[in-house]
């Protein structure tokens, strides 16, 4: 059994403890001591056990007594309930008879409300009049206080009526009608409030207290709105005209005011003022910045923080501006107007002149504002701008060229630049126009600037082709009548100089407006423009030289004739004429002038040699040959002197050209015919482009060589070696020798 089990465990534990106490022999002496200690312990445990059992028994006794009492109480309650039940069944009929009392109570509460409001009810017309006066005097807070009292009276009456009999609309309407003027008052007051709100940015500077009063009134109404809505949730009743939503209304009015403010800044139309858009945008910028600064510094303080008035206004302005910009973008804008609009939208709006103004930060972060126009609209405007600009540039260039052509036929010389070179205004006009458009494009974006530059240079290319054709036509017209135009030479010089100016201007335009990495895309069009300009200049120079040689023709025809031998001064006249022309040619810019001088020198020498080869004279004897040869040498010296003078400072070497005339003179001068072959072969080795017919003509002019002799010399020459000067530019190949003998008209 459990008892035995416990006994066994107790014995085992005791054995263990005794074993623990008696582990060493010396502990046996203390056995008596241990026994006494254990006896004490045992006595103490038994005493504690007795006490515990005693208290347990006491508790059980108390519990039993309480249970007994509870049973008696339950019996009593049961009896009482039976009695109550009996009474209730008897009095149920009496309660039914109390309904009249209940109705009387409700009516009493309504009458109490009516009596309470009686004073107000009778004085409604008077209060309405007083309130009206207060509104007219602008004492809005007082007026509103009275209006609130009136509304409170009406609303309480209506509420009581509703509680008593919510279906009785007749009585409701009666109350409503009696308080009818009050509704007008509310509207009248609202009208005054909205006028203040519309002018809030002005009012806040002149009379901030008025604005604060208006906000207080709106706040009071908001509070009443909330109260009424709460009551509606509980009772289902809400007075007429509630909620008034004056706060929401105030924001709507502010929004309309902002829109009107922005729309109203357009004072002019394109018809009345070309700069209408620039002016319109500038006024908007100024107004918006001023308004926002006032809103931030003054308005913010008049409104409760939860209105977040500055943020709300900022968003209204942004929205109104966006709408206005879209309206403007939809109009049929001209190119310069598109630029004004885009520059304003993309740059001015977020710049320090407007939303980026330091006084607006940190409340306004210009970079976080969205774009006023969508990228799509911006792209459409840009493409419209580019197509308008293209046709404008074509038109401007055409007009510039037409105007320039009118100058070409004037009877006054063209103007000269500061270095004295003739020019016309054409390059300046063209590049000024390009510059203006590039500066304008740069206001919008880097990308547009590059596009406009490409467009300008592309149009420049086709313009130069037209310029070339016009210069050619100018020359042809002049050749029909050389007296006209009077200043042909000077204007042709101006055309040549313009080519140099155009070249320089293209380079400077690219340097100023083109990024280095874009250079590559333009190199081919640049090269083609340079090529056209070189052609125009070259053709111009050559037409001027034609002018010179047309004037020289009669004098060139006199060379190597009898008259010439007898002492005509044809070469003197030629030199004077060339020099005279070159006084004008001094107005040609360096690179072209240098070419002109060399070309003139060359042509004079060619014409001189051509005169020899024309065989207009055949010397009769050694005397005539000597005289003729010496005249030739003297004239070669005259040419050399002239062209040295003309080329002074440009340093080109044209010595060799006159040497050819002298070499030919030596052949003519030779007195010993047996040396003739040697002399001629020296000439040929120096100038290997001399042909047989040239030698034959030369021997004919010498006048003493027989046909056989000519034949022998020419045949022998073909085998000789040549040793020309490396700088020698063939000159004889341009000179033809007439095959038929020229009739000797010039004696």
Question: What would you note in describing this structure?
Answer:
The protein is built from 25 helices and no strands. By secondary structure, the chain is mainly α. It is about 75% helix and about 0% strand. The chain has four domains: about 35-245, no CATH class; about 250-375, no CATH class; about 380-540, Orthogonal Bundle (Tetracycline Repressor, domain 2), CATH 1.10.357; about 560-735, Orthogonal Bundle (Tetracycline Repressor, domain 2), CATH 1.10.357.70. The protein is elongated and about 185 Å long.
Outline the secondary-structure elements.
Layout: H1 2-21, H2 31-96, H3 99-137, H4 140-164, H5 169-178, H6 180-198, H7 200-206, H8 208-235, H9 246-263, H10 276-302, H11 309-330, H12 335-348, H13 375-408, H14 426-444, H15 446-480, H16 488-513, H17 519-558, H18 562-565, H19 570-585, H20 590-613, H21 622-646, H22 655-669, H23 676-686, H24 692-702, H25 707-717
Helix pairs in contact: 3-4, 3-6, 4-5, 4-6, 6-9, 7-8, 7-10, 9-11, 10-11, 10-12, 12-13, 12-14, 13-14, 13-15, 14-15, 14-16, 15-16, 15-17, 16-17, 17-19, 17-20, 19-21, 20-22, 21-22, 22-23, 22-24
């Amino acid at each position: 059994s459990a008892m035995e089990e416990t006994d066994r465990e107790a014995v085992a534990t005791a054995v263990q403890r005794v074993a623990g106490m008696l582990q060493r022999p010396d502990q046996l002496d203390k056995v008596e001591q241990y026994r006494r200690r254990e006896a004490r312990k045992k006595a103490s445990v038994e005493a504690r056990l007795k006490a515990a059992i005693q208290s347990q028994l006491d508790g059980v006794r108390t519990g039993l007594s309480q249970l007994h009492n509870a049973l008696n109480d339950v019996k009593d309650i049961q009896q009482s309930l039976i009695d109550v039940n009996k009474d209730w069944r008897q009095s149920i009929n009496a309660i039914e008879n109390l309904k009249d009392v209940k109705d009387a109570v409700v009516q009493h509460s309504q009458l109490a409300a009516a009596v309470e409001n009686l004073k107000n009810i009778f004085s409604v017309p008077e209060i309405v009049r007083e309130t009206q006066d207060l509104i007219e005097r602008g004492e809005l807070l007082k007026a509103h206080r009275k209006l609130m009292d009136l509304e409170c009276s009406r609303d309480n009456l209506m509420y009581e009526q509703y509680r008593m009999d919510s279906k009785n609309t007749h009585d409701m309407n009666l109350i409503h009608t009696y308080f009818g003027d009050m509704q007008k008052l509310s509207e009248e007051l609202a009208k005054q409030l909205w006028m203040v709100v519309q002018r809030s940015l002005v009012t806040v500077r002149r009379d901030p207290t008025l604005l604060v009063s208006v906000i207080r009134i709106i706040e009071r109404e908001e509070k009443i709105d909330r109260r009424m809505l709460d009551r509606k949730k509980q009772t289902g009743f809400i007075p007429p005209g509630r909620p008034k939503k004056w706060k929401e209304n105030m924001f709507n009015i502010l929004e309309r005011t902002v829109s009107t403010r922005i729309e109203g800044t357009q004072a002019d139309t394109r018809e009345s003022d070309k700069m209408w858009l620039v002016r319109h945008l500038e006024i908007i910028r100024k107004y918006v910045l001023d308004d926002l600064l006032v809103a931030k510094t003054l308005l913010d303080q008049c409104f409760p923080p939860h209105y977040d008035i500055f943020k709300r206004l900022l968003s209204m302005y942004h929205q109104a501006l966006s709408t206005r910009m879209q309206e403007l973008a939809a109009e049929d804008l001209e190119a310069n107007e598109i630029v004004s609009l885009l520059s304003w939208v993309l740059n001015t709006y977020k710049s320090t002149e407007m939303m980026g103004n330091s006084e607006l930060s940190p409340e306004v972060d210009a970079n976080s504002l969205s774009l006023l126009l969508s990228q799509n609209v911006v792209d459409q405007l840009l493409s419209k701008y580019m197509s308008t600009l293209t046709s404008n540039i074509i038109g401007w260039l055409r007009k510039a060229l037409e105007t320039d052509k009118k100058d070409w036929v004037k009877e006054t010389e063209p103007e000269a630049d500061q270095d004295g070179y003739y020019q016309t205004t054409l390059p300046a006009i063209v590049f000024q126009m390009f510059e203006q458009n590039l500066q304008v494009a740069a206001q919008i974006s880097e990308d547009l600037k590059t596009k406009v530059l490409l467009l300008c240079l592309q149009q420049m290319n086709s313009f130069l082709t037209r310029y070339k054709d016009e210069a050619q036509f100018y020359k042809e017209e002049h050749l029909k009548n050389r007296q006209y135009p009077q200043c042909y030479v000077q204007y042709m010089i101006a055309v040549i100089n313009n080519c140099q100016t155009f070249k320089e201007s293209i380079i400077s335009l690219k340097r100023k407006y083109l990024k280095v990495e874009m250079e590559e895309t333009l190199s081919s069009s640049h090269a083609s423009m340079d090529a056209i300009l070189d052609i125009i200049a070259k053709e111009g120079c050559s037409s001027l030289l034609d002018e010179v040689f047309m004037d020289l023709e009669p004098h060139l025809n006199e060379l190597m004739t009898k008259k010439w031998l007898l002492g005509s001064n044809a070469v003197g006249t030629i030199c004077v004429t060339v020099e005279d022309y070159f006084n004008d040619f001094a107005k040609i810019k360096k690179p072209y002038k240098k070419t002109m001088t060399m070309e003139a020198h060359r042509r004079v020498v060619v014409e001189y040699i051509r005169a020899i080869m024309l065989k207009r004279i055949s010397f009769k004897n050694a005397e005539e040959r000597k005289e003729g040869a010496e005249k030739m040498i003297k004239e070669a010296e005259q040419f050399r002197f002239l062209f040295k003078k003309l080329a002074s400072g440009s340093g080109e070497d044209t010595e060799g050209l006159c040497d050819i005339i002298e070499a030919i003179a030596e052949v003519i001068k030779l007195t010993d015919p047996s040396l003739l072959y040697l002399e001629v072969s020296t000439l040929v080795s120096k100038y290997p482009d001399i042909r047989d017919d040239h030698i034959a003509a030369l021997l004919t002019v010498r006048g003493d060589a027989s046909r056989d002799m000519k034949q022998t010399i020419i045949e022998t020459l073909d085998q000789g070696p040549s040793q020309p000067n490396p700088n020698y530019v063939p000159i004889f190949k341009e000179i033809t020798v007439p095959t038929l003998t020229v009739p000797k008209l010039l004696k």
